[in-house]
Design goal:
single chain, about 625 residues, alpha+beta, Glutamine Phosphoribosylpyrophosphate, subunit 1, domain 1, Rossmann fold, 3 domains, six-stranded antiparallel sheet, 17 strands, globular
Amino acid sequence: MCGICGFVDGGGLDPGAPALLKAMTEAIVHRGPDDDGYYLDGRAALGMRRLSIIDLVTGKQPIANEDKTVWVVYNGEIFNFPGLKKDLLARGHAFSTNADTEVIVHLYEDLGDDFVHRLNGMFAVALWDVRRQRLVLVRDRLGVKPLHVAEDRGRLYFASEIKSLLEAPLPRDIDYEAMGQYFAFEYVPAPRSIFRGIRKLLPGQILTHEAGRTETRTYWDVRFPGPRAVDRRSEEDIAEEVAVRLKESVRMRLLSDVPLGVFLSGGIDSSSVTALMSEVSPGAVKTYSIGFREKTFDELAAARFVARRFGTEHREFVVAPKEVRELTPLLMGYLDEPLADASIIPTYIISRLARRFVTVALAGDGGDELFGGYDTYKAYKVARYYRKVPRPVRRSIVRPAVQSLRASPRRLSFEFKAKKFIAGAEYPPEVANFIWWGAYPPELRDRLFSPGLRESIVGDPYAPIAFHAANAGQASGLDRISYLDLKLYLQDDLLVKVDRMSMANSLEIRVPFLDYTFVEFAAGIPHRLKLKGLASKHILKRAMASRLPPEILAKKKMGFDIPLGVWIREDLRDFILETLAPARLRRHGLFDERFVGGILEEHLRGSHNHRQLLWPLVIFQSWHDHYLG
């Protein structure tokens, strides 16, 4: 695990290239505190910071092939590298290390760009072909590892994190279309970034740069079955295969020369990983959990129950409001662009806790998207019937009645879910799904922005939905929604959050549910076996029924969230008032001060729960202060 960066210049590197490469590399030292490495020639510069996981002695990067004509730096892990290495040795290749990195250069020698199809893992690869003067950038299929690129004045830059690119003389102009998307989704969907001119390589993409030309293509995508597909397997057979495949995915992710642990929330996904890891790990599993004093947000009791069941070495931490106030400004330096998922803070804290004892942790991310675990999938089903109610009744009776419901401090209260539901139910299903997830629906987003900013944002903020939906193939219904969640919410929110907060603590996270072969298999399971009626994760629960206690299988999903609504009114009140003060808003003039003041006053008074409107503003203000002043 590490961070990578570099640049290529067809006109040749200038004398300042070594200093720039070192500065770019040092900007991501948190991703790899154990070592650094550099390669420079007349046209290419590659840099890396290493977190030593596999081959602690000889695994230093950059790594080259036998005749030094192919060089690579990469971030991630290739979990099937032992088998790949065996095959490459049989074909006559010579290895100088025991690191997984080295299989990449030898596969490229044999297969060219098709080397990526042989890799099973999480990775961002930068490969320099000396003979052809050609750069190859590759991102893993699901987007577990990040990779950003920028082109300016004939030079192409790349880096694991944006902060590394900002060491180069690149403009720091805001991409206002990306900003509009941020307030719609609570994150900036790829390939855009918040900075104009800096973009993200999409998961499953390969970029080549040769002779001044840059080309990008997709080498992998997940495919869901079409509506006419027939699956003749029994439910019992499918459930058994889910368990077998997930166990193998967990086993593969134990490949390490350093200690491993698990993030355990007490939900079915992390509990499944814990259960399966306890079967294949040679020693006691180490588990780490986060809780809150507010009981409707706290899952520590369930996590302890699972820890006792499997005899893990268990540690936990209770998050208090003071951590939010202290960490929010600090974490902007790790995020690089606004991300309004409030669980970044407990994710940072649990990563900090785990890093005291292990260097690698497994997590349950991906289970909800693959097995119908989100309440938005239930809302999708309910909305089909709600839309049959005559529109005048919905608008004149149902909507006013729901809007009049008193704000509740409870997590995912009926009031909160009802208001979110009616905000999105009038839109097409794909858009409704993300309005239920996101912060600002269209009517409120227009009121948030200042007149000048509204004129600058001319595109549809939901364009990323249409972009990905065009690639969804034959997927329909809930399969189509799952595909979009994999391509947007998972890749641009959850995986970004986990990567940045874990790597801020020099901790590697591995995600067994996102083994691409498991994703392909899970995508083929009929959705009626995932969300059965309104019962979520039916087939996963059946698969794990012999391993997990009934109390965990029957437990309602809580998700990873913090009690922001209450904290904003109480413990964080002064912090929020200071951050959203009119004078601070006036510095950039991007928002309507009266609108912001109005929703803040309503929330503090307790008449509305506007946490999903206020927190994206707090994050944006903190980001703007950190990067643009």
